[in-house]
Specification:
Number of helices of chain B: 6
Structural class of chain B: mainly alpha
Radius of gyration of chain B: 21 Å
Oligomer: heterodimer
Strand content of chain A: under 5%
Distance between the termini of chain B: 74 Å
Strand content of chain B: under 5%
């Protein structure tokens, strides 16, 4: 395999995952929380594809494509929720949404 | 001569890898530190593009193309539409100085990163240095499609149902909020 070993890809994936986790924890805007979730999913995708390359089989890539589809549907529902919140004049702040009452 | 050509190609791959990896990490940090969500979404597009370069280096050409088309194309356009609809509300992550909550979050994710790196170093010491040899046809769309329709048919069908349910859920969420207005 030309270039760096799989371990280096795994380190990048770990760093991406932790960056996304930090964004989910410190940001209050639900839009940025969704973007950080995308970063976490992409970190796991990178690890899956790196292991698929390591074993020389494509099953990891299949799993990564399934993760992409799940991420797309998660974005649809999440953005729908955010737009619904904005239409009800709720604050777009995940710290202030303490109750599930409408 | 052949050895020199191989090592020159290797150095080139290393250079591309370092550029793509640092672009990926830098834009990831930019996503969570911009106060304007519009800039965060634009940095996420850069993050996805540099990840596609890393996928290409791992000879996953189809996934790289799907990443650019689906993520950087469709999903991010949807994000940018919603951000434009809501207006760019600034949300400074470090406003009012570092709070205990933010410091705890930084400590937690740093601890998570250290744990993952230590586990990778301990469990895989040397075992991941010899990847399997793959031929020219590895990761081509033919193989992906064949696996999707044979070995992973159930996952493929469940994915389609999940996408359908998400689309229906998006429509229902939108119509409910319109009625209550």
């Amino acid at each position: 395999m030309n270039g760096p070993d799989v371990v280096w890809y795994l380190c990048v994936a770990a760093f991406l995952f932790c960056t996304g986790a930090l964004g989910v924890l410190i940001r209050r805007s639900p839009l940025i929380v969704l973007l950080s979730l995308e970063i976490m999913l992409n970190g796991s995708n990178l690890a899956l594809i790196a292991f698929a390359r390591h074993h020389g089989r494509e099953d990891g890539q299949i799993f990564a494509l399934a993760v992409m589809a799940v991420a797309a549907s998660e974005v649809v529902v999440g953005l729908g929720l955010i737009v619904a919140m904005a239409r009800r004049r709720l604050d777009l702040d995940v710290d202030k949404l303490r109750t599930l009452r409408g | 001569m052949i050895l020199a050509a191989a090592s020159a190609g290797n150095v080139l791959v290393w250079i591309v890898w370092v550029l793509a990896a640092f672009a990926c990490l830098g834009s990831g940090i930019a996503v969570i530190s911009f106060s304007n969500p519009f800039y965060s979404a634009l940095s996420l597009i850069g993050n996805l593009a540099s990840l596609a370069v890393l996928y290409l280096l791992l000879s996953a050409e189809f996934v790289a193309a799907a990443q650019v088309l689906v993520y950087a194309g469709a999903v991010m356009v949807m994000f940018l539409f919603v951000i434009a609809y809501l207006g760019g509300r600034a949300d400074a992550p470090w406003a009012g100085g570092p709070s205990w909550q933010a410091l705890g979050a930084v400590a937690a994710s740093a601890a998570l990163l250290v744990e993952i790196i230590v586990v990778i170093a301990l469990k895989t010491s040397g075992r991941l240095s010899h990847s399997a040899k793959v031929d020219y046809f590895y990761g081509r769309p033919y193989e992906i499609g064949r696996l999707f329709l044979t070995d992973h048919l159930l996952a493929f069908e469940i994915t389609s149902i999940v996408l359908l349910i998400a689309a229906v859920g998006g429509v229902i969420l939108g119509s409910h909020s319109r009625e209550t207005q």
